[in-house]
């Protein structure tokens, strides 16, 4: 080096930087650990789970994914996790805490993650997730397959919200998990938006849209473990609505150090750079929270 303290080649420096990934990841996780979860909704802790895509310059697709859990009370992340492009969205990314209600969109609504989240929480946390009609195996009270589309078609049109208790099963030999479905009719605009992707997919494949997609597009389906007696359908819908508050948090994080455009060439280098930037972003967010909570010395 310039001070003649040590001699280090470029390859040696890169190797040592790569070895810092576990340390940087541990520091990020430590910064994200809340002192005490704040209950801000009916004595519960609402948290939103979502993910965002990261791409290298010139890339035509997703190279990595950043998964997060966002606490509505504190206005910050409690969990951040980097995966490659194959790392799918999952409800159980991030350890649940007692009293938590994990809220997620339909990318997280699958039987395997529901059951893992239930096991990890040991009955001390609940979830609300939007559900696709075609990706979950549902069982009725008699142990038979529950036909979700048939149930939706049977709902009286004059009633806006409906609900039913079923069970979700990740495999034929897995013990079904009780779950409650809350269905609310979509507006014409929301129905049209829900049909956009099925139409694009059918157009690419030069095929017809599955008729069941038209039925499902007209209804917002939420699956939850919350008890009906304590949390009626209107309350379940109310806590699901703020789920998009995690999106501005991701957007605030991306532009500052260009975290969405990593320029490294190796997977370890990318993880090293991204975790370092996540650490800086978290420290900056903590400082801004302290600033926003302080009152000015005198009126403006």
Please state the average pLDDT score: 83
Structural class: alpha+beta
Question: What is the share of helical residues?
Answer: 25-40%
Distance between the termini: 52 Å
What spatial order of strands do you see in the largest sheet? 3-2-1-4-5-9-8-7-6
Helix and strand succession? HHEEEEHEEHEEHHHEHHH
Q: Based on CA inertia axes, which overall geometry fits? A: globular
Proportion of residues in β-strands: 15-25%
What Rg is obtained from the alpha carbons, in whole angstroms?
A: 22 Å
Q: Total helix count?
A: 10
Low-pLDDT residue spans: none
Task: Describe the protein in words.
- With 300 residues, the protein is an alpha+beta fold.
- Helix content is 35%, strand content 21%.
- The chain has 10 helices and 9 strands.
- Strands 3-2-1-4-5-9-8-7-6 form a 9-stranded mixed β-sheet.
- Strand 4, helix 3 and strand 5 form a beta-alpha-beta unit.
- It starts with 9 loop residues before the first helix and ends in a 7-residue tail after the last helix.
- The model has no long low-confidence stretch (mean pLDDT 83).
């Amino acid at each position: 080096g310039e001070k003649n303290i040590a001699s280090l080649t470029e390859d040696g420096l890169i190797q040592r930087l790569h070895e810092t990934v576990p340390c940087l990841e541990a520091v990020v996780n430590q910064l994200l650990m809340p002192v005490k979860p704040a209950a801000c909704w009916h004595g519960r802790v609402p948290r939103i789970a979502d993910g965002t895509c990261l791409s290298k310059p010139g890339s035509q697709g997703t190279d990595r994914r950043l998964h997060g859990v966002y606490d509505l009370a504190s206005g910050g992340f409690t969990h951040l996790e980097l995966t490659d492009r194959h790392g799918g969205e999952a409800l159980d990314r991030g350890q649940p805490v007692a009293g938590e209600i994990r809220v997620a969109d339909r990318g997280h609504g699958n039987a395997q993650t529901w059951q893992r989240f239930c096991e990890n929480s040991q009955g001390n946390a609940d979830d609300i997730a939007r559900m696709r009609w075609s990706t979950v195996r549902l069982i009725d009270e008699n142990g038979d397959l529950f036909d979700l589309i048939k149930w939706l078609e049977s709902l009286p049109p004059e009633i806006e919200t409906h609900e039913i208790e079923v069970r979700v099963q990740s495999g034929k030999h897995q013990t079904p998990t009780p779950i409650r479905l809350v269905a609310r009719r979509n507006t014409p605009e929301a129905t049209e938006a829900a049909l956009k992707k099925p139409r694009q997919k059918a157009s690419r494949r030069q095929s017809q849209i599955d008729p069941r997609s038209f039925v499902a597009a007209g209804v917002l389906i939420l699956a939850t473990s919350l008890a009906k007696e304590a949390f009626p359908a209107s309350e379940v819908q109310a806590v699901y609505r703020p789920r998009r508050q995690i999106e501005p948090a991701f957007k605030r994080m991306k532009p500052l150090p260009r975290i969405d455009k990593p320029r490294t060439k190796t997977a370890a280098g990318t993880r090293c750079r991204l975790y370092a930037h996540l650490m800086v972003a978290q420290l900056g967010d903590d400082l801004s929270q302290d600033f926003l909570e302080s009152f000015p010395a005198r009126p403006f």
